[in-house]
Amino acid sequence: MGMETNLERRYFGIDHSYYQFSVLENEFSTYKYLTRRESIQLGRILGLTPRQVRIWFYYRRIIWRSDHLRSRNDLHIDRTADTEADDHRLTNVQIIV
Known about the structure:
By secondary structure, the protein is mainly alpha-helical. The chain has helices at residues 6-11, 18-30, 36-46, 50-91.
């Protein structure tokens, strides 16, 4: 399928075309949630049912949250390591009077 990405397979049990996938991703980057009307309109444009669109957004939000939490935890771990290094430096400082 040429332009298909690994992420595309990771999200869904059905295959979406590259066009469908890119439009869905673009919409998701703008809006994390769709109204009923928006899911109907997007489904018509992409040749999907509104339910397929809503399910796609549901699973995409789960993955987004997981990635978002992971990046926050990584940042927290980096800050903790920096703080421990700073504490270690401060304990080794000798005051010369």
